[in-house]
């Protein structure tokens, strides 16, 4: 799966820190802080690795999509999460 979508190099941290967060689209619900979403997704991945459940897989895919659209996520993280989301969907 990784060969189909080679990951681009991640941008330097300095570039991400200097880049202002993108505004949320009109009518979009306000995004919560990014860090708890990342932490929750990592915890779900650990849970799923131990005991695969369809509900956990669905939530992981939704979280990856949320991170991919989050205004505080850097371009590299958004790209990775978009590709992981597609992998979790089986596309």
What can you see in these coordinates?
The longest helix has 17 residues, at 34-50. This protein has a domain at 32-89. Helices cover 59% and strands 0% of the residues. Helix 2 (34-50) packs antiparallel against helix 3 (54-69) and helix 3 runs antiparallel to helix 4 (75-89). The chain is built from 4 helices and no strands. The N and C termini lie close together (10 Å). Mean pLDDT is 78; it is low at 1-22. It is an all-alpha fold and 91 residues long.
Series of H and E elements: HHHH
Low-confidence region ranges? 1-22
Helix content: 55-70%
Mean pLDDT across all amino acids: 78
C-alpha Rg (nearest Å): 14 Å
Shape: globular
* Biggest sheet descriptor: none
Q: Quick summary of this structure?
A:
The protein contains 4 helices and no strands. It has helices spanning 13-18, 34-50, 54-69, 75-89.
Descriptive terms for the model:
91 residues, mainly alpha, disordered N terminus
Annotate the secondary structure layout.
Elements: H1 13-18, H2 34-50, H3 54-69, H4 75-89
């Amino acid at each position: 799966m990784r060969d189909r979508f080679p990951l681009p190099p991640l941008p330097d941290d300095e570039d991400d820190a200097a880049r202002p967060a993108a505004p949320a689209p009109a009518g979009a619900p306000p995004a919560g802080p990014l860090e708890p979403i990342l932490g929750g997704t990592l915890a779900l991945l650990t849970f799923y690795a131990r005991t695969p459940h369809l509900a956990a897989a669905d939530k992981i895919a939704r979280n990856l999509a949320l991170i991919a659209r989050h205004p505080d996520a850097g371009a590299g993280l958004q790209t990775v999460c978009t590709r992981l989301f597609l992998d979790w969907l089986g596309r």
